[in-house]
Fold this sequence. Notes:
heterodimer; A: 83% helix; elongated; B: three-stranded antiparallel beta sheet; 54% helix
Amino acid sequence: MSRMVINLARALLPPSRKAWGEAMAAEFAHLSTGQNGFAWGCLGASVKENVMTGEGLARIGFGLVLVFSIWLTAFWTQSSLKMLASAEYNSNGKLFWLVAIQSVVLIPIICGMAAFKATKMPTNRLHLAKIGYKATCACLWVSAFLQLALCVVSVAFILEAKAEFEQIETSLNIGFVTGVLFLGVAYFARKGPHAMRNAAGIAVLLSLSFAGIVAISQIGKSEIVGHNLVPTALSMAILMCLTAFAGGLFTWMERPAQL
Amino acid sequence: MKRNRPLSPHAQDLIIQQAIRPQEWCYGYDLMKTTGIKSGTLYPILMRLNERGLLESRWQEAEQIGKPPRHAYRLTEAGLKVAHEVERARPATTVFREQTA
């Protein structure tokens, strides 16, 4: 029992304290009496290190992100597969929904993987900036390709004439607009966090301008024909704003501390 | 900027105890016995003292065959200096309490 406790204490310590975990376990191996008390004390110290230090709190945060990501992925996959099984779609319809499901499921998977990586290594801002930047880039690429795939499948769906155009037009528009936008930002973001910040900033301006032009063109019209692109463009502006913020944050985190 | 908080009473006890034999490397269990500090308090103190450069540590080969190497601790020059300062600054009541105990 006490061996299990000391092993748990060693496992729970933040990565920067790993050597201390080894020290505790080695000392435990040399004890002839009082092993139980020693092991429980070490476990207490280990828990305290997680709760009282910045690194420990960051690990708790990453752990929560990881748990939430796993839950969201499992929940979304399970409910979507259930929906797919019950609905009567043709092969293109099923493919369309499968791609749509993947576009949502892959984001928490990427975030969860980034959080898992962050919990395993000593927390420093340079290291976290690198993980965050890579995860954001991966999200941009995945979103871009899946949105474009959604767009292609939508076209195939329409051409097969099994669905009404109005039923699929929304995903076609959104897929195309978001796909191109995400692809553009992901392409320029390859150069680093500062490029991600700048590209996403330009994308915000483009999205807002687009929303403005569409909104102006709709003035005086009593009924909007087809999908209303204003909310889509505004949603894109918000997402790009978040990307620009993330890029700015990672740029700041990578900058050496000024004395 | 890193904050250097004043040492806790347990940490003060520990470095004063260590300052008695400054050249000697001690193990965690020895420190627990000499100071009466439990492992749950001792190891966080050792970590902080090590971080602040007051304590140095190294792995030493075990005297018993088949046992893993042990982590040993010793005060650094800075640690010794702080230990002497703490000893001088300690209120007389604390010293009296320790003596009577």
